[in-house]
Design a protein that fits this description.
Chain A is α/β, with parallel strands linked by helices. Chain A has helices at about 10-20, 45-50, 65-70, 130-135, 150-160, 185-195, 295-310, 380-390, 395-400, 400-405, 415-425, 440-445; strands spanning about 5, 30-35, 70-75, 80, 85-90, 95, 100-105, 105-110, 120-125, 145, 165-170, 200, 205-210, 220-225, 230, 235, 240, 260, 270-275, 280, 320-325, 330-335, 345-350, 360-365, 370-375. Chain A has 12 helices and 25 strands. Chain B is about 60% helix and about 5% strand. The chains are: A alpha/beta, B mainly alpha. The structure holds flavin-adenine dinucleotide and iron/sulfur cluster (2 copies).
């Protein structure tokens, strides 16, 4: 076979393959995965469990897409890589040769050595197999405990609630998703979870151990404070880390993830890594070395696809953005909003008095230069925030043009002037919101 | 909660049983007013209980839980049973109304149709026709299931406004106003000389080519009948204006949604009663290909049929090229497209092929507006930069079988002839990626490569 071989058919591996073809690359391409035969969207695992979709709906391309684009799919597991012989040793016993190798092997859920973490009924949620296991583990259960307040934890909580399972959510920090969300934002989410979805949210609570029922199955958990909570299922959602276990003890340079340059090259020639498993030696300004989200996997894939098609392209992400949904509350973020306001920056927070709608702005304390925004229950135009952040607009400019940026469906109530008034009062400014202008939205200025 | 849903479903079953009982045991169900009231209550109460059981205590937001586990919404046994019953009903309605109880002799209506006699007498002093029965049931279902839809999407104001409009259009424009006009002898009446003056369509939003027999001689004559003036001629001019001016203009400004998902009767049923089936439409590119062939073929057929009809009307002939206009053009179109396609397949197959089979593959009005929407309109679904996570909710719940995700994940606005603007893709998207909007034509179909992909060196520019 040789040619380009990609391990991992997640978003980063698949985007790489597609963009090699899109940019005219004609090498043979083989994509290997031992998870599912066809690329599916990991982000919609929860929807399969809840019955919104079936696996086939989560697959972004039709099954004949791969043959049409001359991309070979191999459903097998790579046990070992022989870098000097440029060959993969497969679980099925076969060997696959490569000219160029792309490692897009994703991550795996963290386990921090808690006693009882390997009992039956204790699991993380990352792969399709995890989902099937969760389906099995949660049949007919009454109470579940989730450990670790992050995105996957909330998703698991939402999933379990649709099956009528009571959920206790242990969060070590003093507020939910404490390392990312500012306190006000986290409290909004926390209230929503407890009030509207009856999740028993326990902040400042750490898992001590997971209790065995005597038959190797979980029967409860004990917190560090000694409290015992009965449950039949424990979901571990304390983050993920790069899936590099099978690459340790090779010549490949690995720290937390596989170390790469901006061109996504590893220390071995003809071997590249990207997506969740990659770690940048020198991240761009304001970015982290590990970026384990969907969008970044896709962007890296586009860059690497070009490189492999003969147009060397660095991964140069622009302005940070992300989004999520916490039960019913949609969240979007652009730029930098940290959990704690950094030195020299100020914040402005506005929350609707009855709806779960909020907006959180961060800006430079002296010059009022806009730095970042979080919104809850308000959709925003990505393009405008990207533009404003690059142009270095002031927070007053942003508030003044919020009607341009609003992306809520038609007829929605919007709150631009209320927000601006509150801001004016707090910072003694005089912002008046401008009417929406298509000209500004589409063509700037 | 489950109990309420079961009660609701049971009332639905009772509704079907009463209809069946009315056919089989006419003596038991002899009191028409009583049983008509009962079935109406069964539907409204049944839907209300089901809706309560489904959504009470649930916070507002998208709750498509269990859709693919459930027999009705996932082509299970219940779904197929429903499809067979519906199909059978439509076959009888179009071709064998006597089996539904239409009068064949002096003894009058019996069966299901007789149930509606009291209401028909109330409106216009005569017994019910199968179409009166159908129109009444149709309205009952749009109203009751419209309420369910509103509760389900209560967080979404676009859906609220749109659904209220769809319900009001059905109740007033399609049902009450036409029946009242008939009651006032402005339609379906006998003139001063005692001769029948004909029937014409008084639903002001029913427009050629959906209303394919608008130009048929009997229809044109009825609109010109002395007994119906000035209303009849007004309808004639309005019909022409609607097709020639209003439709292209509104479609230019708003997209075809102003019609398809806001006021159309077929669309109204699809959006309310059909909402539970939207996920069943096929998203494959093969279906898209078939769709384009079929809808445009139907457009050509209705065009030919109408041209020939008009030729016959103005030249007062009954044949073209030796072919009978009625037997070779009007009748086959009415049979194949008007009845078999739009009715039997269009609604009967809801639980199998989704709620928009007719609108997607057949409707020539949709085809006409689709061409405008695709090439000359301000409407688009804007895709929000790089926020798409390819989850697939949008494509799954698009009733028109549009693979919305394929646009969203590459940052390209959705501009498609078939989009009816229901707004459900935007509603179910968990990442705020889609927005239906009307804006300048310039920049309507664009792709936002910068935000989607690796930065194309914009920092260096
Ligand atoms: C439940 C869940 C929800 C998420 N939601 C969001 C979200 O809303 N937004 C967001 O931005 N991000 C989200 N993420 C994160 C996002 O899904 C990941 O960042 C992204 O999928 C990573 O893509 P990848 O291609 O790098 O790796 P993966 O998608 O993990 O792909 C790696 C693939 O390689 C295969 N593989 C690994 N090793 C081998 C081997 N030795 N042999 C064969 N095959 C192998 C794996 O089985 C896997 O299929 C979510 C993650 C999870 C688990
Ligand atoms: S694309 Fe969206 S708005 Fe258009 S028909 Fe499909 S779901 Fe409705
Ligand atoms: S547009 Fe929204 S619903 Fe559709 S695939 Fe993308 S994230 Fe999912």
């Amino acid at each position: 076979m040789a040619g380009i071989v990609i391990i991992g058919n997640g978003v980063s591996g698949i985007t790489t393959a597609r963009h090699i073809r899109k940019n005219g690359g004609t090498q043979s391409i083989t994509v290997i995965s031992s998870e599912t035969k066809y690329f599916y969207s990991r982000t919609s695992l929860m929807y399969i469990y809840m019955g919104h979709m079936k696996l086939e709906h989560t697959q972004p391309y039709e099954n004949d897409f791969w043959a049409k684009n001359n991309i070979d799919l191999v459903f097998d597991h790579v046990n070992e890589i022989d870098f000097s012989g440029k060959q993969l040793k497969m679980k099925s016993g076969s060997g696959i040769k490569y000219d160029k190798l792309v490692l897009a092997v994703g991550s795996k859920p963290n386990k921090f050595g808690w006693p009882g973490q390997d009992l039956n009924g204790v699991q993380g949620l990352y792969s399709y197999q995890d989902l099937q296991l969760m389906e099995e583990n949660t049949q007919g259960i009454k109470h579940a405990v989730l450990v670790g307040g992050g995105l996957i934890g909330v998703e698991m909580a939402e999933m379990l609630r649709t099956r009528g399972v009571d959920v206790t959510f242990l969060v070590r920090e003093s507020h939910f998703w404490g390392n990312v969300l500012p306190k006000q934002d986290a409290e909004l989410i926390g209230d929503h979870m407890t009030r509207d979805h009856h999740v028993d949210l326990r902040l400042n609570t750490e898992l001590g151990e997971i209790l065995n029922d005597g038959n190797g199955k979980v029967k409860g958990v004990k917190t560090k404070d000694g409290e015992i909570i009965d449950c039949q299922f424990v979901g571990l959602s304390a983050g993920v880390s790069p899936n590099v276990g099978f690459l340790k003890n090779t010549e490949l340079e690995i720290d937390r993830g596989i170390l790469v340059t901006r061109l996504l090259e590893t220390n071995m020639s003809d071997v590249y890594a990207l997506g969740d498993c990659a770690q940048f030696k020198e991240p761009s300004v304001g970015r982290r070395p590990l970026e384990q989200v969907w969008y970044t996997g896709r962007m890296m894939g586009e860059a690497l696809g070009k490189t492999l098609a003969g147009k060397p392209t660095e991964y140069k992400p622009g302005v940070w953005f992300n989004s999520a949904k916490f039960f019913d509350i949609e969240y979007q973020t652009y730029g930098e909003v940290r959990s704690v306001v950094p030195e020299g920056k100020s914040e402005f927070y506005w929350q609707h008095d009855s709806e779960d709608v909020a907006i959180h702005l961060v800006f430079d304390s002296l010059e009022f230069k806009f730095v970042g925004i979080n919104t809850f229950g308000i959709r925003l135009r990505h393009e405008l925030f990207d533009r404003w952040l690059r142009e270095g607009q002031s927070v007053m400019y942003v508030l003044e043009h919020m009607k341009d940026a609003n992306f809520d469906p038609e007829f929605y109530r919007t709150y631009e002037q209320e927000v601006a008034d509150a801001f004016n009062k707090e910072f003694n400014k005089n912002v008046t919101v401008k009417a929406k202008s298509w000209k500004r939205i589409l063509f700037g200025a | 909660m489950k109990l309420y849903r079961q009660l609701g479903t049971s009332l639905g079953v009772i509704f079907v049983l009463i209809l069946a009982g009315k056919m089989a045991l006419p003596l038991v169900f002899s009191n028409n007013s009583l049983w008509l009231t009962t079935i109406t209550l069964c539907v409204f109460l049944g839907v209300a209980l089901f809706t309560y059981g489904q959504y009470a205590g649930e916070s507002k937001g998208i709750k498509n839980n269990n859709v693919w586990f459930d027999g009705v919404s996932a082509r299970g046994v219940l779904g197929w049973t429903m499809a067979i019953l519906l199909t059978a009903f439509y076959v009888m309605l179009y071709w064998f109304p006597e089996y539904l109880g239409k009068a064949t002799d002096q003894s009058g209506n019996w069966g299901i149709i007789a149930l509606f006699d009291p209401l028909s007498y109330f409106f216009k002093g005569k017994p019910a026709s199968e179409w009166f029965m159908y129109g009444t049931l149709y309205t009952i279902f749009i109203l009751s299931l419209g309420i369910k839809f509103i509760v389900k999407y209560r967080h979404n104001r676009y859906q609220l406004v749109r659904t209220v409009v769809v319900m009001v259009s059905q109740l007033f424009l399609a049902y009450l106003i036409p029946e009242i006009l008939a009651g006032l002898n402005y339609n379906d009446a006998v003139d001063a000389q005692g001769t029948y003056a004909g029937w014409y369509d008084t639903d002001i939003k029913n427009v050629w080519p959906l209303d394919y027999d608008f130009f048929n001689d009997w229809h044109l004559d009825a609109m010109q009948a002395d007994a119906y003036q000035p209303l009849g001629m007004t309808y004639l001019f309005w019909g022409l204006l609607l097709f020639l001016v209003v439709t292209p203009l509104l479609t230019y400004f708003l997209g075809k949604r102003w019609y398809c998902s806001w006021i159309c009767g077929c669309g109204g049923l699809a959006e309310t009663a059909g909402d539970s089936f939207r996920q069943l439409s096929s998203k494959s590119t093969t279906s898209w290909k078939i769709e384009r062939w079929m809808i445009h073929t139907v457009m050509v057929l209705v065009f030919i049929m109408t041209l020939v009809t008009l030729y016959g009307y103005f030249f007062e002939v009954y044949d073209v090229f030796g072919l009978s206009i009625y037997h070779w053009f009007q009748k086959p179109y009415g049979f194949l497209i008007g009845a078999a396609f739009s009715g039997v397949v269009g609604v009967g197959f809801y639980p199998v092929m989704g709620n928009r089979v007719w609108c997607r593959f057949g409707c020539p009005m949709a085809g006409y507006m689709g061409i405008i929407q695709r090439f000359k309109s301000k409407f688009r679904i804007t895709v929000n930069g790089g926020q798409c996570i390819s989850c697939g909710n949008c494509s799954t719940y698009c009733e028109q079988g549009i693979d919305v995700r394929s646009y969203a994940q590459r940052g390209q606005n959705v501009v498609r002839a078939s989009c009816v603007g229901c707004g459900v893709c935007a509603a179910v998207c968990p990442r705020g990626v889609l927005k239906l909007e009307n804006g300048p034509e310039e920049g309507r179909i664009k792709q936002n490569t910068v935000l989607i992909g690796a930065d194309l060196d914009y920092l260096d520019k």
